[in-house]
Amino acid sequence: EQTSRNRQSIIVTELPYLVGPERVIGKVQELANNGKLVGIEGIADLSDMNGLMIQIDVKPAVNPQAVLQELYRLTPLEESFGINNVVLVDGIPTTLGLFDLCRAYIEHRLEVIVRRTQFRLEKAQDRLHILEGLLIALDAIDEVVAIIRSSENAGEARDRLVERFELSVIQATHILDMPLRRLTALAKLELEDEAAGLRTDIAEYERLLGSEDRRRKLVLKELGELVDKHGQDRRAEIINADDIPVFERPMENDTSFDTDSDEPCVVTLSSSGNLGRVPVEGAKKGVAGRHDLVKSALVTSTGTAIAAVTSEGRAFIFHAGEAADAGGRTRGNAAAQQLGLNKGEDALALVGAGEENLVLLTARGVAKQVTADEVLATKSGKPVIGLKDGDRVVAAFRAPAEVDVIAVASDGQVLRMPLDSISVQGRGAGGVAGMKLKVGAEVVGAGPLIGDGVVLTITSDSAAKATPYEEFESKGRGGQGVRVAKLGAAETVTLAWFGSLGSIGGPGDLLAQMADDEVPNKLDPNPVPFDIEASKRDLVPAKTERQIMVLGPSRW
What we know:
The protein is of the alpha+beta class. Helix content is 27%, strand content 26%. Strands 1-2-4-3 form a four-stranded antiparallel sheet, covered by helices on one side. The protein has a four-stranded antiparallel sheet with strand order 9-7-8-12. The two termini are 30 Å apart.
């Protein structure tokens, strides 16, 4: 967190179980005095009635991420402990790992469902048996009453009812116990409705007992209900071991990057939110890996200041050399962690020095241009656009002054407008009206029209359409645009991509990340090549194999 103009601090708001702030502060001070922990200027316990807070001030020109890694390594900020999972499996004490523990619990839940369903089935069958007897008696109530009145005792009446109407003893007993109010027509309708409901329940119980797939789906549903009722958001982030960032240990009077060497590099921001850096000569396209689609890339040098612009309209300034190495099997570091983003805030674009302005489009159709110098002069973490409550930035990109800009709305409307119609404003301004939206619609994407390309739109019904740029006539800003495709009644555009399809098969392959086969709301981490034929505007989109969730070129 930026606590002053030239200083950053590490703010601690949570500690491991049974670790108090005094223990952490004492250990940090001890290590700092012994010279084992450098780069720290001070530490203070700012805890109050609002909760725990420890502020660790980092010396100027020292990478706070590197200091944080040392704190995790040397202090009680991070601790590990073992768990011995000894449980009873079929009455036998057994030590289980997490996978076997989950499997045993699922088998237990399946057994619970079988026994519970069998119990409910038997109860429903017993009740239906009684109801069927009562309904038989009501259909011949005069004869039933005559038999009862002519019998000397209850036993004789029961036996005669069993013989006359082929009833069971249980049914005959309940007929004898039936109160007079059951003789009304309304009571008979109630019994018939109850019997119909029981028959439906019995059929469902039998289907459930006869299908393991149904039982497993019920287990999944009940676990989901437990999560909804009692679940808490995960506080820890689970990542692959290969993705753990490695920082050089901070040295006294040194930085985590060398501005004097100022080596050329490429900084990339991936679709999964990873920020990474590779040397220019190392930025060669290879086989696509997991989560490695490019959202934004910038050729720069390690000693140059660049900015990351976010969905909240903020600009975070850092040197390119501070970006984690993305060579080999690593993908860099999570931008949210390195930049200190808010929950739900996404990094959208990287900005370096140059003549091209930064263009911003918001979900509510507001547009704005900001010069690159203005962005880079912004205090890190401060906004470059004044957003109204509930609005957010959905597109951020650099564009030459003479091009057109295109915006796509969720209802399938597309507006093409000259870039020079969007005012260049200071970072505190709120922008101008870019696209007029219909009720319930919002902008889902925008980009510059450079060369011969297409607007590629993805819809909520697992369909895609590529429309050439020339299909859209350039209009002034503030309009609603034209329809890009014929959509279904509840179908919406969820994603838009802008570029040339002609490069597919070459260095700029277009890849797609689709929804997982088994869990539609989950992203399949493996990108696949995506190809599509361009077609005229206002046609029906073509169905895709699965829902496309991310589009972009491969990240090296």
